[in-house]
Protein backbone atom coordinates (compact mmCIF):
# COMPACT_ATOMS: atom_id res chain seq x y z
CA UNK A 1 0.00 0.00 0.00
CA UNK A 2 2.73 2.46 0.96
CA UNK A 3 4.55 1.98 -2.35
CA UNK A 4 1.44 2.51 -4.49
CA UNK A 5 0.43 5.64 -2.60
CA UNK A 6 3.97 6.98 -2.88
CA UNK A 7 3.96 6.35 -6.63
CA UNK A 8 0.59 8.06 -7.02
CA UNK A 9 1.67 11.14 -5.12
CA UNK A 10 5.03 11.24 -6.88
CA UNK A 11 3.44 10.99 -10.32
CA UNK A 12 1.07 13.87 -9.70
CA UNK A 13 3.33 16.08 -7.61
CA UNK A 14 5.98 15.84 -10.34
CA UNK A 15 3.69 18.24 -12.20
CA UNK A 16 3.73 20.85 -9.44
CA UNK A 17 5.28 23.44 -11.72
CA UNK A 18 2.21 23.27 -13.97
CA UNK A 19 -0.52 21.89 -11.68
CA UNK A 20 -2.32 22.59 -8.43
CA UNK A 21 -2.31 19.38 -6.38
CA UNK A 22 -5.21 18.52 -4.06
CA UNK A 23 -4.96 15.52 -1.71
CA UNK A 24 -7.88 14.14 0.27
CA UNK A 25 -8.68 10.88 1.96
CA UNK A 26 -11.17 8.78 3.86
CA UNK A 27 -11.07 5.84 6.23
CA UNK A 28 -13.36 3.48 8.11
CA UNK A 29 -12.42 1.40 11.12
CA UNK A 30 -15.31 -1.03 11.55
CA UNK A 31 -15.71 -4.13 13.66
CA UNK A 32 -18.42 -6.64 14.31
CA UNK A 33 -19.58 -10.23 14.60
CA UNK A 34 -22.45 -12.57 13.93
CA UNK A 35 -24.65 -13.00 16.99
CA UNK A 36 -26.44 -16.04 15.56
CA UNK A 37 -26.92 -17.64 12.17
CA UNK A 38 -27.64 -20.80 10.22
CA UNK A 39 -24.84 -20.55 7.67
CA UNK A 40 -24.97 -22.49 4.39
CA UNK A 41 -23.55 -25.98 5.08
CA UNK A 42 -23.88 -27.05 1.41
CA UNK A 43 -21.35 -24.32 0.51
CA UNK A 44 -19.23 -24.93 3.60
CA UNK A 45 -20.26 -21.49 4.91
CA UNK A 46 -20.35 -21.08 8.68
CA UNK A 47 -22.83 -18.68 10.33
CA UNK A 48 -22.03 -15.49 8.42
CA UNK A 49 -23.19 -11.97 7.67
CA UNK A 50 -22.23 -10.97 4.13
CA UNK A 51 -21.99 -7.19 4.51
CA UNK A 52 -20.58 -6.42 1.05
CA UNK A 53 -21.04 -8.80 -1.88
CA UNK A 54 -18.50 -7.53 -4.49
CA UNK A 55 -15.49 -7.72 -2.16
CA UNK A 56 -16.91 -10.52 0.03
CA UNK A 57 -16.80 -8.62 3.33
CA UNK A 58 -17.97 -11.37 5.67
CA UNK A 59 -18.47 -11.32 9.42
CA UNK A 60 -18.53 -14.58 11.39
CA UNK A 61 -19.09 -15.47 15.04
CA UNK A 62 -15.51 -14.37 15.75
CA UNK A 63 -15.24 -10.61 16.28
CA UNK A 64 -13.17 -8.93 13.56
CA UNK A 65 -12.18 -5.50 12.26
CA UNK A 66 -11.10 -6.86 8.86
CA UNK A 67 -14.26 -7.20 6.73
CA UNK A 68 -15.10 -3.52 6.26
CA UNK A 69 -12.18 -1.44 7.53
CA UNK A 70 -10.47 0.54 4.76
CA UNK A 71 -8.42 3.61 3.96
CA UNK A 72 -8.38 5.60 0.74
CA UNK A 73 -6.30 8.41 -0.72
CA UNK A 74 -7.33 10.60 -3.64
CA UNK A 75 -4.99 12.94 -5.48
CA UNK A 76 -6.15 15.42 -8.11
CA UNK A 77 -3.85 17.49 -10.29
CA UNK A 78 -5.47 20.59 -11.75
CA UNK A 79 -3.50 21.49 -14.90
CA UNK A 80 -5.54 24.60 -15.63
CA UNK A 81 -7.72 25.48 -18.62
CA UNK A 82 -10.26 22.82 -17.58
CA UNK A 83 -7.86 19.84 -17.60
CA UNK A 84 -7.29 17.67 -14.50
CA UNK A 85 -6.02 14.21 -13.53
CA UNK A 86 -7.44 12.13 -10.67
CA UNK A 87 -6.16 8.98 -9.00
CA UNK A 88 -7.60 7.08 -6.06
CA UNK A 89 -6.11 4.17 -4.13
CA UNK A 90 -8.10 2.11 -1.63
CA UNK A 91 -6.77 -0.52 0.78
CA UNK A 92 -9.41 -2.83 2.28
CA UNK A 93 -9.26 -5.14 5.24
CA UNK A 94 -11.23 -7.72 3.24
CA UNK A 95 -8.24 -7.83 0.84
CA UNK A 96 -5.58 -7.89 3.58
CA UNK A 97 -5.13 -4.11 3.04
CA UNK A 98 -3.57 -4.69 -0.37
CA UNK A 99 -3.85 -1.23 -1.97
CA UNK A 100 -5.44 -1.05 -5.42
CA UNK A 101 -6.17 1.74 -7.87
CA UNK A 102 -9.95 2.26 -7.87
CA UNK A 103 -9.98 5.44 -9.97
CA UNK A 104 -7.49 6.74 -12.52
CA UNK A 105 -8.91 9.18 -15.06
CA UNK A 106 -8.51 12.53 -16.77
CA UNK A 107 -11.18 15.25 -16.98
CA UNK A 108 -11.62 18.08 -19.43
CA UNK A 109 -14.21 20.82 -18.95
CA UNK A 110 -15.67 21.50 -22.40
CA UNK A 111 -17.58 24.49 -21.00
CA UNK A 112 -19.40 25.50 -17.81
CA UNK A 113 -21.88 22.60 -18.14
CA UNK A 114 -20.14 19.72 -19.91
CA UNK A 115 -17.14 17.63 -18.78
CA UNK A 116 -15.48 14.79 -20.68
CA UNK A 117 -13.68 12.06 -18.71
CA UNK A 118 -11.67 8.98 -19.66
CA UNK A 119 -10.01 6.21 -17.64
CA UNK A 120 -10.97 3.92 -14.78
CA UNK A 121 -13.96 4.86 -12.63
CA UNK A 122 -16.71 3.40 -10.46
CA UNK A 123 -19.60 1.99 -12.47
CA UNK A 124 -22.49 4.39 -11.64
CA UNK A 125 -25.22 1.78 -11.31
CA UNK A 126 -26.52 2.85 -7.91
CA UNK A 127 -27.20 6.10 -6.07
CA UNK A 128 -24.25 5.59 -3.70
CA UNK A 129 -21.86 4.05 -6.25
CA UNK A 130 -19.61 7.09 -6.70
CA UNK A 131 -18.96 7.45 -2.97
CA UNK A 132 -19.65 3.92 -1.76
CA UNK A 133 -16.26 3.63 -0.03
CA UNK A 134 -16.67 6.94 1.82
CA UNK A 135 -18.68 5.77 4.84
CA UNK A 136 -18.86 9.30 6.24
CA UNK A 137 -21.03 10.30 3.25
CA UNK A 138 -24.09 8.25 4.24
CA UNK A 139 -26.02 7.54 7.42
CA UNK A 140 -25.75 3.72 7.66
CA UNK A 141 -22.77 1.45 8.31
CA UNK A 142 -23.03 0.56 4.60
CA UNK A 143 -25.51 0.73 1.70
CA UNK A 144 -27.59 -2.49 1.85
CA UNK A 145 -25.89 -5.58 0.47
CA UNK A 146 -29.18 -6.86 -0.97
CA UNK A 147 -29.12 -3.93 -3.41
CA UNK A 148 -25.38 -3.42 -3.96
CA UNK A 149 -24.79 -7.04 -4.87
CA UNK A 150 -23.37 -7.20 -8.40
CA UNK A 151 -19.91 -8.63 -8.98
CA UNK A 152 -18.58 -5.80 -11.19
CA UNK A 153 -18.24 -2.31 -9.70
CA UNK A 154 -15.56 -0.57 -11.80
CA UNK A 155 -15.13 0.00 -15.53
CA UNK A 156 -12.63 1.47 -17.98
CA UNK A 157 -13.98 3.80 -20.62
CA UNK A 158 -15.20 7.32 -21.31
CA UNK A 159 -18.09 9.36 -19.97
CA UNK A 160 -19.70 12.73 -20.52
CA UNK A 161 -21.03 14.70 -17.53
CA UNK A 162 -23.58 17.50 -17.54
CA UNK A 163 -24.41 19.87 -14.68
CA UNK A 164 -27.05 22.54 -15.02
CA UNK A 165 -30.69 23.27 -14.30
CA UNK A 166 -34.16 23.11 -15.80
CA UNK A 167 -36.32 25.83 -14.33
CA UNK A 168 -36.21 25.47 -10.54
CA UNK A 169 -34.79 21.94 -10.77
CA UNK A 170 -31.12 21.08 -10.54
CA UNK A 171 -30.11 18.66 -13.29
CA UNK A 172 -27.05 16.44 -13.64
CA UNK A 173 -26.48 13.67 -16.15
CA UNK A 174 -23.84 11.13 -17.10
CA UNK A 175 -23.49 9.12 -20.31
CA UNK A 176 -20.81 6.43 -20.25
CA UNK A 177 -19.41 3.52 -22.23
CA UNK A 178 -16.59 1.01 -21.71
CA UNK A 179 -15.80 -2.45 -20.42
CA UNK A 180 -14.41 -4.35 -17.44
CA UNK A 181 -12.36 -7.55 -17.53
CA UNK A 182 -11.89 -8.89 -14.00
CA UNK A 183 -9.42 -11.74 -14.43
CA UNK A 184 -10.21 -13.27 -11.02
CA UNK A 185 -13.50 -11.90 -9.75
CA UNK A 186 -13.55 -12.07 -5.97
CA UNK A 187 -17.28 -12.66 -5.44
CA UNK A 188 -17.58 -15.42 -8.03
CA UNK A 189 -14.17 -17.00 -7.35
CA UNK A 190 -14.18 -16.95 -3.55
CA UNK A 191 -17.85 -17.26 -2.72
CA UNK A 192 -20.20 -18.60 -5.40
CA UNK A 193 -18.14 -20.90 -7.62
CA UNK A 194 -15.12 -21.54 -5.34
CA UNK A 195 -12.93 -21.65 -8.46
CA UNK A 196 -10.92 -19.02 -10.40
CA UNK A 197 -13.53 -17.06 -12.35
CA UNK A 198 -12.91 -14.42 -14.99
CA UNK A 199 -15.87 -12.04 -15.37
CA UNK A 200 -16.16 -9.79 -18.43
CA UNK A 201 -18.67 -7.01 -18.99
CA UNK A 202 -18.18 -5.47 -22.44
CA UNK A 203 -20.03 -3.06 -24.73
CA UNK A 204 -21.23 -1.22 -21.64
CA UNK A 205 -23.49 1.70 -22.49
CA UNK A 206 -25.37 3.58 -19.80
CA UNK A 207 -26.87 6.83 -18.67
CA UNK A 208 -27.81 8.54 -15.41
CA UNK A 209 -30.13 11.50 -14.85
CA UNK A 210 -30.40 13.19 -11.45
CA UNK A 211 -33.08 15.82 -10.66
CA UNK A 212 -33.32 17.78 -7.42
CA UNK A 213 -35.63 20.48 -6.12
CA UNK A 214 -36.00 21.67 -2.54
CA UNK A 215 -36.65 18.54 -0.41
CA UNK A 216 -36.92 16.03 -3.29
CA UNK A 217 -34.25 14.21 -5.31
CA UNK A 218 -34.88 11.70 -8.11
CA UNK A 219 -32.24 9.59 -9.86
CA UNK A 220 -32.90 7.48 -12.98
CA UNK A 221 -30.38 5.09 -14.51
CA UNK A 222 -30.17 2.55 -17.31
CA UNK A 223 -27.31 0.39 -18.58
CA UNK A 224 -26.88 -2.44 -21.05
CA UNK A 225 -23.88 -4.74 -21.49
CA UNK A 226 -22.69 -8.14 -22.74
CA UNK A 227 -21.47 -10.72 -20.20
CA UNK A 228 -18.81 -13.39 -20.77
CA UNK A 229 -17.40 -15.69 -18.08
CA UNK A 230 -14.61 -18.25 -17.72
CA UNK A 231 -14.50 -20.71 -14.80
CA UNK A 232 -11.18 -22.55 -14.38
CA UNK A 233 -10.29 -21.20 -17.81
CA UNK A 234 -13.34 -22.77 -19.48
CA UNK A 235 -16.03 -20.53 -21.02
CA UNK A 236 -19.44 -20.71 -19.39
CA UNK A 237 -22.48 -21.24 -21.56
CA UNK A 238 -25.99 -19.91 -21.17
CA UNK A 239 -28.59 -21.69 -23.32
CA UNK A 240 -25.83 -22.88 -25.63
CA UNK A 241 -24.25 -19.43 -26.04
CA UNK A 242 -20.94 -18.11 -24.70
CA UNK A 243 -22.33 -14.66 -23.95
CA UNK A 244 -25.52 -13.06 -22.70
CA UNK A 245 -26.90 -9.53 -22.77
CA UNK A 246 -27.97 -7.69 -19.65
CA UNK A 247 -30.12 -4.61 -19.06
CA UNK A 248 -30.11 -2.69 -15.78
CA UNK A 249 -32.74 -0.19 -14.62
CA UNK A 250 -32.64 1.91 -11.47
CA UNK A 251 -34.74 4.49 -9.65
CA UNK A 252 -33.83 6.30 -6.43
CA UNK A 253 -36.14 8.76 -4.69
CA UNK A 254 -34.97 10.68 -1.62
CA UNK A 255 -36.96 13.14 0.46
CA UNK A 256 -35.33 15.35 3.12
CA UNK A 257 -37.62 17.46 5.29
CA UNK A 258 -34.88 18.89 7.51
CA UNK A 259 -34.80 16.49 10.43
CA UNK A 260 -36.89 13.67 8.95
CA UNK A 261 -35.64 11.96 5.79
CA UNK A 262 -36.74 9.05 3.62
CA UNK A 263 -34.34 7.22 1.28
CA UNK A 264 -35.33 4.63 -1.32
CA UNK A 265 -33.83 2.74 -4.24
CA UNK A 266 -35.38 0.28 -6.70
CA UNK A 267 -33.39 -1.71 -9.28
CA UNK A 268 -33.92 -4.45 -11.85
CA UNK A 269 -31.39 -6.46 -13.86
CA UNK A 270 -32.72 -8.39 -16.85
CA UNK A 271 -30.28 -11.16 -17.73
CA UNK A 272 -31.23 -14.81 -18.18
CA UNK A 273 -33.64 -14.15 -15.31
CA UNK A 274 -35.01 -11.04 -13.63
CA UNK A 275 -33.15 -9.77 -10.55
CA UNK A 276 -35.14 -7.26 -8.49
CA UNK A 277 -33.86 -5.31 -5.50
CA UNK A 278 -35.25 -2.49 -3.43
CA UNK A 279 -34.43 -0.53 -0.29
CA UNK A 280 -36.28 1.93 1.91
CA UNK A 281 -34.87 3.75 4.92
CA UNK A 282 -36.20 6.34 7.35
CA UNK A 283 -34.19 8.43 9.81
CA UNK A 284 -34.54 11.46 12.07
CA UNK A 285 -31.83 13.92 13.07
CA UNK A 286 -31.63 14.91 16.73
CA UNK A 287 -28.80 17.40 16.43
CA UNK A 288 -25.64 15.33 15.92
CA UNK A 289 -27.39 12.00 16.59
CA UNK A 290 -29.40 10.22 13.87
CA UNK A 291 -31.27 6.97 14.53
CA UNK A 292 -32.54 5.12 11.45
CA UNK A 293 -34.21 1.97 10.21
CA UNK A 294 -33.77 0.27 6.85
CA UNK A 295 -35.28 -2.63 4.94
CA UNK A 296 -33.82 -4.13 1.75
CA UNK A 297 -34.80 -7.06 -0.45
CA UNK A 298 -33.27 -9.12 -3.26
CA UNK A 299 -35.24 -11.58 -5.38
CA UNK A 300 -34.34 -13.57 -8.47
CA UNK A 301 -37.27 -14.85 -10.50
CA UNK A 302 -37.00 -17.78 -12.87
CA UNK A 303 -36.95 -21.56 -13.09
CA UNK A 304 -34.67 -23.72 -10.96
CA UNK A 305 -32.53 -22.31 -8.15
CA UNK A 306 -33.87 -18.94 -7.04
CA UNK A 307 -31.98 -16.49 -4.84
CA UNK A 308 -34.07 -14.52 -2.35
CA UNK A 309 -33.02 -12.69 0.82
CA UNK A 310 -33.88 -9.57 2.76
CA UNK A 311 -32.32 -7.50 5.53
CA UNK A 312 -33.82 -5.43 8.32
CA UNK A 313 -31.42 -2.99 9.96
CA UNK A 314 -31.61 -0.48 12.81
CA UNK A 315 -28.80 1.82 13.82
CA UNK A 316 -27.54 5.14 15.11
CA UNK A 317 -25.05 7.64 13.71
CA UNK A 318 -23.30 10.15 15.97
CA UNK A 319 -21.37 13.04 14.40
CA UNK A 320 -18.98 13.48 17.31
CA UNK A 321 -16.47 15.48 15.22
CA UNK A 322 -16.74 17.73 12.13
CA UNK A 323 -14.82 15.12 10.13
CA UNK A 324 -15.79 11.90 11.89
CA UNK A 325 -18.89 9.86 12.72
CA UNK A 326 -19.46 6.89 14.99
CA UNK A 327 -22.05 4.33 13.90
CA UNK A 328 -23.54 1.17 15.32
CA UNK A 329 -25.95 -1.08 13.42
CA UNK A 330 -27.89 -4.29 14.02
CA UNK A 331 -28.76 -6.40 10.95
CA UNK A 332 -31.14 -9.32 10.66
CA UNK A 333 -30.87 -11.26 7.40
CA UNK A 334 -33.52 -13.72 6.26
CA UNK A 335 -32.36 -16.02 3.45
CA UNK A 336 -35.26 -17.70 1.66
CA UNK A 337 -33.33 -18.80 -1.42
CA UNK A 338 -34.91 -21.84 -3.05
CA UNK A 339 -33.04 -25.11 -2.35
CA UNK A 340 -29.72 -23.47 -1.48
CA UNK A 341 -29.34 -20.52 0.88
CA UNK A 342 -26.64 -18.03 -0.14
CA UNK A 343 -25.23 -17.38 3.34
CA UNK A 344 -28.20 -18.38 5.51
CA UNK A 345 -30.13 -16.44 8.11
CA UNK A 346 -28.10 -14.27 10.45
CA UNK A 347 -28.21 -11.63 13.13
CA UNK A 348 -25.16 -9.37 13.38
CA UNK A 349 -23.88 -6.30 15.19
CA UNK A 350 -21.33 -3.92 13.67
CA UNK A 351 -19.91 -0.57 14.75
CA UNK A 352 -17.17 1.77 13.67
CA UNK A 353 -15.83 5.23 12.92
CA UNK A 354 -15.83 6.88 9.50
CA UNK A 355 -13.52 9.83 8.85
CA UNK A 356 -12.67 12.16 5.98
CA UNK A 357 -9.50 14.21 5.71
Automatic annotation (TrEMBL):
Family matches, as InterPro entries: Gram_neg_porin_domain (IPR033900), Porin_dom_sf (IPR023614)
Signal peptide: 1-19
Boundaries of every Porin domain copy: 8-354
Listed Pfam families: Porin_4
Superkingdom classification of source: Bacteria
Keywords assigned by UniProt, alphabetized: Signal
A GO cellular-component term linked to this record: membrane
GO molecular function: porin activity
This protein's name: Porin domain-containing protein
Organism phylogeny: Bacteria, Pseudomonadati, Pseudomonadota, Gammaproteobacteria, Alteromonadales
